[in-house]
Structures are given as C-alpha cells and as structure tokens.
Design goal:
Blueprint: H1 3-23, H2 27-33, H3 38-45, H4 47-63, H5 69-88, H6 93-120, H7 125-149, H8 157-176, H9 191-195, H10 206-235, H11 241-288, H12 295-303, H13 305-323, H14 329-358, E1 360-361, E2 364-365, H15 367-388
Helix pairs in contact: 1-6, 1-7, 1-8, 2-3, 2-10, 3-14, 4-6, 4-14, 5-6, 5-8, 7-11, 10-11, 10-14, 10-15, 11-12, 11-13, 11-15, 13-14
Length: 399
C-alpha cells in the first residue's frame, strides 16, 4: 500500500470509531439525566444491534452493486451526522429513539464499507490490515478520553461533537479516499446470500452448532458491559468514567499482540473458554468493587475487556475460517456476525434494561445483583461449551 493511501485510510478508521466513541459509552448517563427509564436506555443501546442486522442489506444490496464505496461512505456519514445532531436536541424517548436508530442505520454499514476501501488498496491484507484497523481502537480511546476528561457524559454536547465529526468525515470520504467501484455490479443478490444464510449447512456439525448458539448467548451478557458500565461507574462515584473505560480498549490492543502465541499453545476450545471465563470474572469484579477500597476490582474488570473480546471474538473468527469451505467463508462470517453483534447484543441490551429496572428504587440502582446475573449467564455458556464443543481436527495458525 502506498503511503498516501495508508494515511488516508488510517485516518478514516480513527475518525470513524471516534464518532461512535463520543456517545457509545456515556449515552446512558445522559438519558438518565433526562429521566429516561432503564428499559428505555436498554432499548437505545440496542439500536446499534438493530442496525447491525439490517446493514448487510445496505451493503450487499446497494453499496456492492450500484455505487462506489467511498461515495456511499460519505453520504451515510453526512446523513448520520445530521440525524445524530437532531437526536441531541430530543427531550423525550419517543423523539430520541427513532433519530438514534436512523443514525445507527447510517453508521453501522460504514464499518464494512471502510474495510472494503482498505482491502482494495492492500496487496497483503494479513500483514497490513491489523496495523491500520488498530487506528479505530485509538479513535475510540481518544473519544472516551475527551468525553471523560471534560465531564461531558451527562450533556447532549457528546452527540453534537459526534455529529459534527461525522459530517466532516463524510466530506473527507467524498474527496480524499481512493475510488472503489461496486464489486458486485450486475450480479444477482438474495436475502440468504446477503445475511450469510448459505452457511446454515455448517450447523450439521455439532461443534459448529454449539459455537453458533454459544456466540449468540454470550453476547447477551456482553451487552450488559456496553450499556451499563459507564452509568454504573458514574453513579457509584468514579470520576471520569468514560476515560477510565478506555483502559479496556488499551487492554484489547495489548492482548491482540499476545494472541498468536496463546492461540498456538492453547487451541480453539481453550481460548474460547478462557475468554468466557474472563467475561464471568469481569462481572464479579463489578459486583464486588466500589469507588473506594474496591477500585482495583473495578479497574481489573475494565482491563479484562481485552481478553474477553480478543480471546472469544478473534478466536471465533479463526474457527469459522477453519470450518467453512473457501467458497462459504464470507457467508459464515456474516452469519456469525448477525448472531453476535446483531441478535445477541440486541437481546442483551433490552434485557439489561429490565434487569436494572427490577433492581432500582427510584434513581438508585442496586448494582451488585445486576452484575451477578450476566456473570451467571457467562458461566452457563462456558459450561455448555465445555461439555459439548470439540476441538477442530484441523489446526490453522491465525494470521
């Protein structure tokens, strides 16, 4: 990849995840300030999951067949920025929620489109993509630091910052990114192929079926972390909670560096089990931590985000690549993404709202049992894997 393209795409990833990071952590505190119910907050955090389930249609049916990727990126970011700004002005859930869903419907397809732009410029994606994609993690960290250090978590300005940056990124995409023509122009498309349903044949293998079910189930407790942690930390008196939560992304980068060595030594099953065990441990840390002497437990729970995410999701992507025939690999990855980032996270976000409401007295939340529920759920999925999942016969080193 030439240096100019590398810089422009790295900047794309940085700004793209900065936009999501401005509100994706602290939105619950702002909604709580306006008096929205815990159930409403849970539904709002589920908006990205709804968009994740619908975005394959936007990418597969429209972007891949009719328009250049950078033009679709630019248009979606500009429209998404306008909707996010409008959402920042809302004072009722009935007004705010449709605008937020509209923004996420514009934003979530850009994740796949940015990957398409990046891959189009790479000669060896295995060597180049990781060092460019990590800029997205740094963008998320930068947004969290900004919102946390300036104590903007309870203010609508967090959305307005994201909106302004989104519009600027849209313009940048239209004028600065390389041209990526539609790769499937003139080819027929079906709902099944777009959602990866062609990969359902893989469910005949018991271990893959267990993996698919477990991937869906484990994302239910995962949603508790994304939609509840910042509110929890803020309400128990932790200063600059969004900034402290960026330690999780820092941990994610660190564990990505050791991932190849651990994968080679432990294999698929042990890596998946280790990731799920970290999930359960994280919520136990939150249940028994506090802003005083128990602050170390809270920080440990945040730092466990690295192995939680990397050991399960990255290992899962490698496992899917091992199991699926070459002609079906993209469909299989799409199917698992639909189950995890889409269906699982949506169910978890909505469920978390009801769990918090059940453990609330007015504005006060009894957080300990709220965290022990996803801890127990994570352990349940771990036991399911332990009993039913079998190590794949073919061992492939991750790249």
């Amino acid at each position: 990849m030439n240096p100019a393209a590398r810089f422009s795409i790295s900047l794309l990833f940085f700004i793209q995840f900065f936009i999501w990071g401005t509100w994706g952590v602290s939105m619950g505190t702002w909604m709580n300030t306006l008096g929205f119910s815990p159930v409403d907050i849970g539904k709002a955090f589920g908006a990205t999951s709804i968009a994740a389930m619908i975005s394959p249609f936007i990418v597969g049916m429209i972007a891949d067949r009719y328009f250049s990727a950078q033009r679709v990126l630019g248009t979606l970011h500009i429209l998404g920025g306008v909707l996010l700004y409008r959402a920042s002005l809302a004072t009722s859930f009935s007004e705010f929620y449709p605008l937020l869903v509209g923004h996420t419907l514009c934003y979530m397809p850009t994740l796949a489109l940015a990957n398409s732009v990046a891959f189009s410029q790479m000669q060896d994606a295995a060597k180049s993509f990781g060092s460019i994609r990590v800029m997205g993690t740094f963008g998320w960290i930068a947004a969290g630091m900004l919102i946390g250090k300036l104590n903007l978590g309870a203010l609508a300005v967090q959305f307005q910052i994201g909106a302004g940056v989104s519009i600027l990124l849209g313009l940048y995409c239209l004028v600065a990114l390389p041209d990526v023509p539609p790769k499937a122009k003139g080819q027929p498309a079906s709902i099944g192929s777009v959602l990866g349903l062609d990969a359902l044949v893989l469910l005949k293998d018991r271990s893959f079926a267990v993996f698919a079910l477990g991937s869906f189930l484990i994302c239910i407790p995962l949603a508790f972390y994304y939609s509840g942690t910042e509110r929890f930390l803020t309400q128990i008196g932790v200063a600059e909670a969004p900034a402290k939560m960026t330690f999780g992304q820092m941990s994610e980068v660190l564990f990505m560096l050791v991932f190849p060595v651990m994968f080679a030594r432990l294999g698929v099953k042990k890596m998946l089990l280790l990731g799920m065990a970290c999930w359960a441990a994280r919520y136990v840390c939150f249940a028994y931590g506090n802003a005083g002497p128990g602050m170390g437990l809270l920080l440990l729970g945040i730092l466990l985000h690295g192995p939680c995410f990397d050991f399960f999701f990255v290992t899962g992507q490698v496992y899917v690549d091992q199991c699926a025939p070459e002609r079906m690999r993209s469909a299989a990855q799409c199917f698992i993404a639909f189950l995890t980032y889409g269906a699982g996270m949506l169910v978890g976000s909505v469920l978390q709202g009801y769990v918090i409401q059940a453990h609330s007295e007015g504005e006060k939340v009894n957080w300990a049992p709220t965290w022990l529920i996803p801890a127990a759920g994570s352990m349940g999925v771990l036991l399911l894997f332990l009993a039913l999942f079998r190590e794949p016969k073919r061992a492939v080193q991750p790249v």
